Amino acid sequence: MLRIASLLPELLGTYGDAGNARVLAERAWRRGVDVDLVSAGLHDALPDADLYLLGGGEDGPQRLARDLLAGGSFAQRVADGAHVLAVCAGLQLLGTTFCVEGDNEYPGLAMVDVSTTRGSRRFVGDLAVNVGGRWLVGFENHGGQTIRANGVASLGSAARGHGNDGSSDGFVTERIWATYAHGPVLALNPWFADEILSVVLGRDLDPLPGVADRLYEERCRALKLPPLG
């Protein structure tokens, strides 16, 4: 049984990122994997899960989400083997510090050695990232500038848009994927959903061709992205 938990969608669901959970569950079900898809809200206890999803949100909800997650066992469950996909505000929460409401700095969950300050402007528009020789496409809308410590790998290099710092997007660790891409990102990038599922399940997955792949290819063409590899 694969358990996928969408955390605090009331706070971290501004940009439709909760759809990432549905994409993962559907692609797992179609391969015969039993899936328990749960949503843990403001007044719910943190569920046990193999994969937790954090989405984007505004400043006030982001601070509240941080307080709620810091008061539970979220970080320990990831340390014990659970995985995380974090988008935008969720990405910032996993770091050591983040800024909201101007330059006011708040502590993050300190699960990854990154910090987020306020950028010189708000970054809004298409985002295209080279992730291991494949394009990750999405849409960004954030004012944060995320700095990775030495030894923290980015998810990929940003060829379109800003991402962390104008040249990279997100970060990746043994159990965490983080990106500034909305969309929801897994609906736009079915190959990335399968990559995450493969790691969480601990096995290779059979191909699952369908309309999602064609839409992904059309999106890459519309953005005029060059072939990779």
Structure, described:
This protein is α/β, with parallel strands linked by helices. It has a single domain (2-222), classed as Rossmann fold (3-Layer(aba) Sandwich). 27% of the residues lie in helices and 33% in strands. It contains seven helices and twelve strands. The strands form two sheets. A six-stranded mixed sheet has the order 2-1-3-4-12-11. Strands 5, 6, 7, 8, 9 and 10 form a six-stranded mixed sheet that branches. A hairpin with a 7-residue loop joins strand 9 and strand 10. Helix 1 crosses helix 6. The longest helix is centred in the N-terminal third of the chain and has 12 residues, at 59-70. It is globular, with a radius of gyration of 16 Å. The chain starts with a strand and ends in a 7-residue tail after the last helix. The model has no long low-confidence stretch (mean pLDDT 94).
How is this structure best summarized?
Helix content is 27%, strand content 33%. It contains 7 helices and 12 strands.
